[in-house]
Design a protein that fits this description.
2 copies of one chain form a homodimer. By secondary structure, the first copy, chain A, is mostly helical. Helices cover about 75% and strands about 0% of the residues of chain A. The first copy, chain A, has a domain of about 140 residues: Tetracycline Repressor, domain 2, CATH 1.10.357.10. In chain A, helix 1 crosses helix 4, helix 4 packs parallel to helix 7 and helix 6 packs across helix 7.
Chain lengths: ~210, ~210
């Protein structure tokens, strides 16, 4: 190592690794996950390239570690806040609020990490794309599960297909995120909210 | 949205330029518009880099010309087929069909050119991003115009906000495209169609 920095304890190293990956995930939403070279990241975090190389052996390892870091951020900002709401429509609405807030508050400067990187890598086979595809499938399943909980609570009609409803929720999220990044206005987020509220009203259980 | 360019006899140079740009637009949906170097494109079309340089002075000029080429493809596959349907719901449904067909038939190997490239360049200021943003705004306005025509024809309720409905249509398209590219299955396209048919049924004029 040629950083000239004093040797750090393991816990400092862990903290430093997490700080590097936070920055990497932020950078990836601006320049792309493919644009995430060790050199660029070294500039962004003020370390030497060889110092970074000690943390991450290859660009692909760095990309995979960056995705895992973004998964933790997404869990903390979107999944966990909704998980503390009671199952049913309340939890579904908490998830909608949490996702739209995650976009609006610039948790990542280029909007939702997963929307950005999956659209970037969808035609580039390999473990990074596979990981992103798996995340996206898990997310849609999570949405469908929360819809099923609302059905079990008698708050969404039994005739609704949870996977179809999950698609419609994610469609509103996906476009709201895409437009917010470009427009920097709350309008698309409000449109998404209106779309979803209307759809949930239509999905209310039939009387009787 | 239509090119307005009269069909005329083209020189070999124009034909060759168009063939190069077709390939460039296809490549851009796989490797990104940023990944579209003169060198890579030269390999793909079997020309020398200097030969390509004679057509396009800079990478940015090539990117802008590629976007215009993709606009013509989009017009031919999506806008024009719908324009020949009568105004109202028939034209709106023709547009939905045309868009989903444009995705499903791999007009571009990486799905909708504009979804791919706008998500790629949304954080990279410059004339290429500006052109893509303008296209996207025009497209949403086009959708809203077709909704207004259906309102004028008495086929969509007057109380519907055309811009909101345009957002909802595009949300279904945007996610259907994103998922189709990854899954290579018609399922997301069918989900989008179901979303839209249900939404149009809900938008039918109130009786009386």
């Amino acid at each position: 190592m040629t950083t000239g920095a004093p040797r750090k304890t393991r816990s400092d190293g862990e903290r430093s690794r997490n700080a590097i990956l936070d920055e990497a995930a932020r950078l990836a939403t601006v320049q792309g996950l493919s644009g995430l070279s060790l050199g660029r990241l070294a500039d962004a975090v003020g370390m030497s390239k060889s110092g970074l190389f000690a943390h991450f052996g290859s660009k692909e390892d760095l990309q995979l570690a960056t995705v895992e870091s973004a998964v933790r951020v997404f869990d903390a900002h979107v999944i966990e806040p909704a998980a503390s709401a009671p199952p049913g429509l309340a939890r579904l609405r908490a998830l909608v609020d949490a996702y739209l807030r995650y976009v609006e508050t610039d948790v990542f400067p280029g909007g939702c990490f997963f929307a950005a990187t999956l659209m970037e890598l969808n035609m580039q086979p390999g473990p990074v794309r596979d990981r992103l595809v798996r995340f996206f499938g898990d997310w849609l399943q999570h949405l469908a599960t929360i819809v099923r909980e609302a059905q079990a609570a008698g708050e969404i009609d039994e005739s609704e297909d949870p996977e179809q409803l999950a698609f419609e929720l994610e469609a509103a999220f996906f476009l709201a995120n895409g437009q917010f990044v470009v427009m920097r206005s709350p309008e698309p987020l409000e449109r998404a909210r209106r779309t979803i509220e209307r759809r949930l009203a239509a999905a209310a259980p039939a009387a009787g």
